[in-house]
Amino acid sequence: MQFFVDTADIDDIRDLAATGLLDGVTTNPSLVAKSGRDFFDVLKDICAVVEGPVSAEVTATDHETMIAQGRKLAAIADNITVKVPLTWEGLKACRALRGDGTMVNVTLCFSATQALLAAKAGATFVSPFVGRLDDIGQDGMQLIQDIRTVYDNYTALDTKVLVASIRHPTHVLQSALIGADVCTVPPDILRKLAQHPLTDKGLAAFLADWQSTGQDI
Ligand code: G3P
């Protein structure tokens, strides 16, 4: 499974990219607003650090303007993935941008039938939002299972399932168990994946015992 980081914070991206574990980045208009920076500058900085797909979202609601915005974003770097919303207009824009050879991430997906349409429109990625479904009392991970099943039923569909709106490490574990292709994870949750209290306790004990030997390596 691939790991993308869900942020527009270039310092976090640089830090996580240095681990060699980062396969890509996703941004959205809310994350860009949070960064307080110019959208194009942020994307140029991210693409200079990360070789994998970098999602950049259009802000228009009609397909003609989405396509025009998508083409401007795609011109920034070869690894830009244009993000369009899962609407009829977004699906039209997806088809056209894929025709240009641009990677497209169809976002704001909340049902398996929406995901089926995204795949038929040629999406490179579909982004189901698990946390936002959990927030309204629905089962976000069941949606990932349903999309996996639908896509696996039709081998001609090659859209990757990119699990978004991840709120905790268990979402990542469940995504891996289901066989999702990608998880896009906020930086703090990505760091938590490496943490375990027994690792910290065990390391402290090993270091204390080592110090008692008086040896050096
Ligand atoms: O980038 C899309 C998605 O990951 C947003 O997550 O936490 O705002 O629901 P969240």
Sequence stretches where pLDDT stays below 50 over 5 or more residues: none
> What is the CATH level 1 assignment?
Alpha Beta
CATH superfamily grouping:
Aldolase class I
**Counting H and I runs of at least 4 residues, what is the number of helices?**
11
Distance between the termini: 36 Å
- Outline the biggest β-sheet: 8 strands, parallel, barrel
Total DSSP E strands:
8
Cα-atom Rg, whole angstroms?
A: 19 Å
Q: Looking across the biggest beta sheet, what order are the strands in?
A: 1-2-3-4-5-6-7-8
How confident is the prediction overall: mean pLDDT? 97
Measured by DSSP, the beta-strand proportion falls in 15-25%
CATH topology: TIM Barrel
Helical/strand content category: alpha/beta
Overall outline: globular
Which small compounds were modeled alongside the protein? Answer: SN-glycerol-3-phosphate
Q: What is the helix content?
A: 40-55%
Architecture per CATH nomenclature, i.e. the level-2 architecture: Alpha-Beta Barrel
Structural domain tally: 1
Element pattern in H and E: EHEHHEHEHEHEHHEHEHH
How would you concisely characterize the structure shown here?
The chain is an alpha/beta fold and 217 residues long. It has helices at 10-17, 29-35, 39-49, 63-74, 88-99, 112-120, 130-135, 140-153, 169-178, 187-192, 197-213; strands at 2-6, 24-26, 54-57, 80-85, 103-109, 125-128, 160-163, 182-185.
Write structural notes for this entry.
This protein has 217 residues and is of the alpha/beta class. Helices cover 52% and strands 17% of the residues. The protein has a single domain, classed as TIM Barrel. It has helices at 10-17, 29-35, 39-49, 63-74, 88-99, 112-120, 130-135, 140-153, 169-178, 187-192, 197-213; strands spanning 2-6, 24-26, 54-57, 80-85, 103-109, 125-128, 160-163, 182-185. An eight-stranded parallel barrel has the order 1-2-3-4-5-6-7-8, surrounded by five helices. The mean pLDDT is 97. The structure holds SN-glycerol-3-phosphate.
